[in-house]
Structure formats: structure tokens, C-alpha cells
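User: Please predict the structure of the protein below. I'd like the answer in C-alpha cell form so I can feed it into my own downstream comparison script.

Assistant: Understood. Taking the following sequence of 182 residues as input:
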Amino acid sequence: MIFLQLFYTFFIIGMFTIGGGYAMLSLIQDQVVTVHSWITESEFTDIVAVSQMTPGPIGINSATYVGYTVLQNSGAGELACTLGSFTATLAVVLPSFLIVLWLCRIYTKFSGSYMFHGVMKGLRPAVAGLIGAAAIILITPENFPDWKSWALFTVAFVAGMWTKINPILIIIAGGVAGFFIY
């Protein structure tokens, strides 16, 4: 039963998330912490931290980790935990795969349409909102950024928005500054 719940939950998350893994985090947090109470808020924060450190998309890494942790918390064995990881990962990836396959056919058919371009332009604010929601969810009392982090963010934001500095150089400069500050 837990495998079906995992598959359904992550399939729906994968189906209705536009904008990548960071946009997905708020939906994952809502479902696994609030709705199903499969893991605690602290465990979710740990999952996000580990998912950011491991190679690959954060949404897929989070689904994999949640699938494993949910089964582990229920007392299942190692094989069942691994199947839980596989189930959640497959479920979160499958909608994107099917949608992209379908969109490839649509794009080739309607790529010259003004309405198509309008719809794509209209999705941008929704993606920004989902990513912003993920950032707000991750600011908890345990990991609330200090003034130095806010200052680094502000400098990087200003440099990215109002200068022509390469974003990779901004990231490198932020990393170097963070190393020396912390």
C-alpha cells in the first residue's frame, strides 16, 4: 500500500511541477511532511541538504531519499527501502518524460504560433513563484540566514540583474567570499 501511495504522491508532484527541482521542493514538503506525515520537518531539511550535495537534479534526489526514508521509518528491510527509492524516483520522473515526449510533437506542430509563445511566456511568473516558495519554506528557525548571507545574496543579485558580469563568475566570487567570511 505504501508503494502505491508513494507512486501516486510523487507522480502528482511530477505532473504539476513546472520549473525544476527547486520549484518541486514546496510540493514535496507539503505532501510528505504535512499531508502524509511520513517524515518530520527536520528530516525534510536534511533531505534537502543531502539532495543539494549529491550530483543530479534536486527534485529527483529528494524523491529518491524520501522514498527510502519513508520505508525505513516504517521498519521495512533494505530491499523494500531501495524499492521505495525506485518507486518515488520513477513516479516523479515519469510525468516529465511523458509530457516532454508530447510537447516535442506539439512544438513541431505549433512552433510558429503567437499563442504558443504567449503561453510559454505566461508560465515564467508561475515558475518564479514556485522557486520563491521553496526558498521561503527552507528558511526555518534552524537555518535562518544571518546578515552576512543576506549581504552576499544582495550583492550577487545586484551583480546579476544590473551588470553584464558572467553568472558563473558571480557564483565563484560568492563562494570565495563565503569561504573567507565563514
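That's the full C-alpha cell string. The chain has eight helices and no strands.
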